[in-house]
Recover the amino acids of this structure.
């Protein structure tokens, strides 16, 4: 290569450029400069041809001469900007005119840049690059914002899947809050009807977080909801575990579930921090390790439910590991419970609207994991 | 990945030289350990340095177990109290055998 040649364009990707000029010499010269820099060039000699080819060939960039026999560059730009298919096409105007009014009109019509003629090779390639980069930045910004909008919609869907809390039935009240660490998360909870008039309260925490975990959490939670309507809790969990051990997903689910039938409780905790049973701020009992997290082992789950008879005034507290980081030993569970005011002399259940704040005060402003708290309160003797 | 690999007559002893077995390192940990355990009859993971295991780390331990050759055993030695609680909460103490020291894990 001649040492007199300017350095080649730094553009990473070659562009497909439509060059519009009515002068054969300019077309040939500019085309050669662009091709030498690795770009693919097609040409048009009139305004009408430019409009047709801009639509038909969908180039990455348009180099447009101001003076054409039929239409001028400003008019062409205006028409391209009015068409949704070419509204965003990057346009550089080539003009021999240095009149400010011409250049101003071109920018007003929507060109991205202009180049004085005769065209300098160095300047041509630099501007082509700059305009292409600007276009790419605009495009990725739009993609990012589309993705964000998508996630915001997913967040609304996920929130709509959560139960209306507090939920009250038959002397019991469930309150709780889910705080995902991003827009959507892998924690879900539900309060749903079980067999023989029972109510089942569940907290599902899928390993990992973000969109993939949210999809799995919705599926797990939905399947469990169907199963508990027709199976006692232990059977429902077993059935869910069998399905999950045959799935190839890398995600598994830690699930705490309580089936409430009058004063009789069935508790299953598959991998979440201990379910704490408290009364008057004192810890009565912890339930954990009823099964391995569902979907973690390739074998059907072994489930060891805990059966309890509950007295009014008792609280049952379920946490996801985001609050104890990691699936903490009992000390790490009791600490957060005390700090949330659920243990100790002045223990009382936070109001539903206070729960999110309490969780946030424990996890900090930028939590690393989704965090969920679900409190089941036995308020009065059941009518049963 | 910082892993110490020591072949013993009874078993291959693998010692992670890091504190956190979490989402950042779990995939690499699984890949590297699985590479080393082919054709082994017994593998001992000395977890004395590891004080924290998150949900991904837990999954990586299970996948090492799944990747063992037919009939081979995986033993965990010197498991930190936090990690031990995690194994208890997830009922995995039934799946992994744990030993207070490497010689005990080796059965010598």
């Amino acid at each position: 290569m001649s040492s007199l040649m300017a350095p080649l364009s730094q553009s990473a990707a070659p562009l497909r450029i439509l060059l519009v000029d009515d002068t054969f010499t300019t077309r040939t010269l500019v085309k050669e400069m662009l091709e030498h820099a690795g770009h693919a060039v097609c040409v048009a000699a009139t305004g009408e041809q430019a409009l047709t080819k801009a639509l038909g060939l969908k180039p990455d960039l348009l180099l447009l001469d101001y003076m054409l026999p039929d239409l001028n560059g400003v008019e062409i730009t205006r028409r391209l900007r009015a068409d949704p298919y070419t509204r965003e096409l990057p346009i550089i105007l080539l003009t021999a005119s240095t009149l400010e009014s011409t250049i101003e009109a071109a920018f007003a019509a929507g060109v991205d840049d202009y180049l004085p003629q005769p065209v300098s090779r160095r300047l041509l390639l630099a501007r082509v690059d700059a305009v292409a980069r600007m276009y790419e930045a605009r495009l990725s910004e739009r993609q990012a914002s589309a993705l964000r909008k998508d996630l915001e919609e997913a967040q609304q869907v996920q929130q709509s899947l959560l139960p209306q809390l507090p939920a009250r039935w038959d002397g019991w009240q469930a309150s709780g809050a889910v705080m995902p660490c991003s827009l959507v998360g892998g924690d879900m909870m539900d309060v749903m009807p079980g067999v023989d008039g029972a109510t089942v309260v569940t907290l599902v925490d899928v390993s990992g977080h973000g969109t993939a975990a949210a999809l799995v959490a919705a599926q797990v939670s939905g399947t469990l909801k169907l199963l508990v309507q027709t199976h006692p809790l232990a059977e429902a969990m077993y059935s869910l575990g069998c399905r999950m051990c045959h799935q190839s997903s890398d995600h598994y689910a830690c699930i705490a579930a309580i089936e409430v039938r009058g004063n009789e409780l069935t508790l299953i905790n598959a991998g979440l921090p201990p379910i704490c049973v408290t009364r008057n701020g004192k810890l009565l009992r912890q339930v954990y390790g009823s099964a391995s997290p569902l979907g973690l082992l390739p074998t059907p789950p072994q489930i060891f439910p805990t059966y309890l008879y509950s007295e009014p005034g008792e609280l049952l507290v379920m946490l996801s590991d985001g609050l104890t980081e990691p699936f903490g030993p009992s000390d790490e569970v009791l600490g957060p419970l005390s700090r949330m005011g659920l243990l100790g002399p002045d223990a009382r259940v936070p109001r539903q609207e206070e729960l999110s704040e309490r969780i946030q005060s424990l996890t900090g402003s930028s939590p690393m994991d989704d965090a969920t708290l679900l409190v089941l309160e036995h308020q009065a003797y059941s009518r049963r | 990945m910082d892993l110490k690999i020591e072949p013993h007559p009874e078993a291959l002893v693998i010692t992670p030289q890091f504190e956190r077995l979490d989402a950042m390192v779990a995939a690499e940990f699984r890949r590297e350990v699985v590479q080393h355990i082919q054709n082994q009859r017994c593998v001992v993971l000395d977890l004395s340095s590891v004080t924290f295991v998150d949900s991904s780390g837990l999954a990586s331990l299970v996948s090492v177990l799944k990747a063992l050759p037919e009939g081979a055993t995986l033993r965990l030695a010197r498991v930190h109290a936090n990690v031990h609680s995690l194994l208890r909460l997830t009922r995995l103490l039934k799946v992994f055998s744990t030993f207070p020291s490497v010689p005990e894990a080796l059965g010598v």
